[in-house]
Amino acid sequence: MTVFNKESFNDKHLLITGATGGIGYETAKIATELGASITITGRNEKKLYKIKEELENSNQDASIYAHISDLTKKHDRESLLKQAAGNLGPVTGLVNAAGIGGGDTVERLSEDDLRNILELNFTSTVLFTQAVYNQMIEKQHGTIVNVSSLSGLRGTYGNSAYSASKFALTGFTQALAVEAIENNIRVNAVCPGFVNTQMARDAISRKGKRQNRSFEEQLKIVEEGLPSGRLTEPEEVANTILFLLTDAASNIIGESVKISGGSVMR
Ligand SMILES: NC(=O)c1ccc[n+]([C@@H]2O[C@H](COP(=O)([O-])OP(=O)(O)OC[C@H]3O[C@@H](n4cnc5c(N)ncnc54)[C@H](OP(=O)(O)O)[C@@H]3O)[C@@H](O)[C@H]2O)c1
Predict the structure, then answer these.
(1) Which residues pair with 185 in a beta bridge?
(2) CA 208, CA 204: separation in Å to the nearest integer?
């Protein structure tokens, strides 16, 4: 279900990172249904081109450019932006959905996990955003949505590295939002709790293992702990992201929009 009309994104070029993942894929799918031209990116080549084909098959008019990139690599970030703009024109909307989970309790956290999580979820996301932002400044127009997390608003058990990376992203969102609005560029974040994707399933499995519980047992505990009684679906996050990208959200700036099933209310 979506609240948008078919022309909501005509003449818009959205660049969606993490498009081979659950949230990025749903964002790409709905964006093409709403008339956006999209650049999709991820590392998994087979999956990325399959998604491109699937979206083109269901939308004959869709303009989709797919580009493989590892966002932790400077060369990949540069070529992604150059090729995206070359193929579909300047990027008018950026969705930073690429991210990784993992890590452990602080006593067991490995240096590699800490560095890798911060590298993608924060440093590389900031550097890529900076490059896109500088292009948007030239046009004095654009919108950016960072996919942060409820973990970017409060700490939870066994989640220190991921949580730190998302707190950093939330802080970056707010600081950039204040600067960017002077250039008519809006920046916001979405902060979902558990979303029904591979990342959440992995996190629930890890948590279950620590407690000697099966995935199903741990999932039941997670769902029972949520006022809504269920995980968020990726489509629900995608619709929130897309709303923030439209002019209907034109005075929403620097927000961290929670999608928590009622679990976090402040
Ligand atoms: N699922 C949740 O419960 C949840 C909750 C709150 C926030 N989030 C955030 O939502 C975003 C999307 O998560 P998801 O649930 O859709 O996870 P997902 O299904 O695991 O997707 C993760 C995406 O990130 C991409 N990625 C990973 N490493 C990359 C790298 N080095 N360079 C480029 N792309 C890379 C993956 O691409 P490849 O597979 O092609 O490498 C994939 O497209 C993440 O930022 C996550 O932190 C998720």
Answers:
(1) 142
(2) 6
Per-residue pLDDT of the chain (266 residues; tens, 9 = 90+): 567 887 789 999 999 999 999 999 999 999 999 999 999 999 999 999 999 999 999 999 899 999 999 999 999 999 999 999 999 999 999 999 999 999 999 999 999 999 999 999 999 999 999 999 999 999 999 999 999 999 999 999 999 999 999 999 999 999 999 999 999 999 999 999 999 999 999 999 998 998 999 999 999 999 999 999 999 999 999 999 999 999 999 999 999 999 999 999 98
How far does residue 44's CA lie from ligand 1's centre (Å)? Answer: 12
Distance CA 128, CA 133 (A): 9
Pocket lined around ligand 1, Cβ cut-off 6 Å: 18-24, 42-44, 69-72, 97-100, 120, 147, 149, 192, 194-195, 197-200
Please identify, by atom number, the ligand 1 atom nearest to the C-alpha of residue 195: 3
* Residue 133 is a catalytic residue: no
Ligand 1 centroid to residue 207 C-alpha, Å = 19
With a threshold of 0.85, does the pTM exceed it? yes
Q: Look up residue 174 and give its two tokens.
A: 């707010």
Domain with CATH 3.40.50.720 in the chain: 13-193+234-258
Q: How far is the CA of 98 from the centre of ligand 1 (A)?
A: 4
Buried b (16+ CB within 10 A) or exposed e, 78-108: eebbeebbeebeebbbbbbbbbbbbbbeeee
Class for the domain spanning 13-193+234-258: alpha beta
Q: Which of 23, 78, 127 to mutate to test the pocket of ligand 1 (most atoms within 8 A of CB)?
A: 23
